[in-house]
Amino acid sequence: MFLLQSQYAREFAEELGREMIKAPLIDALRAAPEQHEHKTMTPYVTERLERFLQARNIVVPEDRMIVDCEGNRDRKPGTPSYGYPVLGTSTYPDIAVLAPFTCAVEFDREARSASEFRTKLMKAAVHVLSGAYSACLYVYLQPQGSTIRYTDDGSLHTKRLLMILESFGLFVCLVPAQDVTG
After folding, report:
1. How far apart are CA 40 and CA 114, in angstroms?
2. What 8-state DSSP symbol labels residue 62?
3. Does pTM top 0.85 for this prediction?
4. Which of 60, 92, 70, 66 lies closest to 79, judged by CA?
5. 170 touches 139 (CB < 8 A)
6. How far, in Å, are 13, 84, 141, 176 from residue 20 at the CA level?
7. Counting Cβ atoms within 10 Å, is residue 22 exposed (0-12), middle (13-18) or buried (19+)?
8. pLDDT tens over the chain, length 182 residues
């Protein structure tokens, strides 16, 4: 059962990543206030989870499908915690699918330096490398005028790193800046 749940978590993260760069998700994501993307995107993630399960004929009672997010004040009593301890600190993904499988979603926007991408990517990787989540989607919003190709820089080291992270269940979604031509 665990292997099947893990496979579903990975498939969900991968599919969600493909949908993040299409309307209406990309529009909602771009319009979300910085540092509050998770609040804007939680209903979309919940709806995509419902569709994902339906497409596979997986019936999950509504009270057994749990999606939570950072700052959720409406958390029902008895809801499992989406945070976990690692390296002496508590760690929380921006959005967490807690049932019927575990999948973390992290959002970040391009920082002042390219090296910050590595730091933020590793922060997202902790969710799967620690075993707390079966999969993680890391969504990185690039600002207008950005020309940095983080995941496609031609380096074999980059390609190898991304393959290793994906083998652990981390999927990267770069959201391009809004196209000014149309």
Report:
1. 26
2. G
3. yes
4. 66
5. no
6. 10, 26, 10, 11
7. exposed
8. 567 899 999 999 999 999 999 989 999 988 888 888 998 999 999 999 999 999 999 888 777 778 888 877 677 777 777 889 999 999 999 999 998 999 999 999 877 677 888 899 999 999 999 999 999 999 998 877 777 788 888 889 999 999 999 999 999 999 887 754 44
